[in-house]
Amino acid sequence: MELTVTVEVGDRNELRDLYGRIKADRGLRSTARLVEGEPAPEELSTVTQALQIILGAGATVTGITGVVIAWLRHRSSEFTIRLHRGGTELELTAKGLSTMDSAQIAQLTEKVAAALADQPANEE
Q: Within a domain: residue 7?
């Protein structure tokens, strides 16, 4: 399964932090790569466009979704991402996540994972 994360509101380069978390967590059994774009004329370095996450054998949608939501929870309230998988596109915002308790976060994680898991695998 491939999942793509893009930033709608906020600094796209924050995806580097999420990339680091995914790479560091070997229990996720997934690989990730940053999709970089050409810098604007006034910028010196490339700009992160997206984060592609590929779940390997034994990986779970819930596991990766939990990491994404935990990461998003620590962004400012003006930070919004989109999760893309096949024909499914979900938008999540950091607003309100910091005030949720662990049961609410678990419930949100399950709902997002269920929505993403309902898509057939993308055969390329």
A: yes
Question: Burial of 67 by CB count in 10 Å (0-12 exposed, 13-18 middle, 19+ buried)?
Answer: buried
Long-range CB contacts for residues 74-77, cutoff 8 Å, separation at least 24: 74/98, 75/10, 75/14, 76/10
Domain of 44, in residue numbers: 2-117
Residue 28 lies in a domain: yes
Total of domains in the chain? 1
At 50-69, the pLDDT tens digits run 999 998 877 788 899 999 99
**CA nearest 35: which of 58, 4, 59, 65?**
4
Which CATH number belongs to the domain containing residue 43 in this structure?
A: 3.30.70
The CA-CA-CA angle for residues 110, 84, 87, to 5°, reads 100
For the chain, give the mean pLDDT: 87
Class of residue 106 by CB neighbours under 10 A (exposed 0-12, middle 13-18, buried 19+): middle
| CA-only gyration radius of the chain, Å | 14
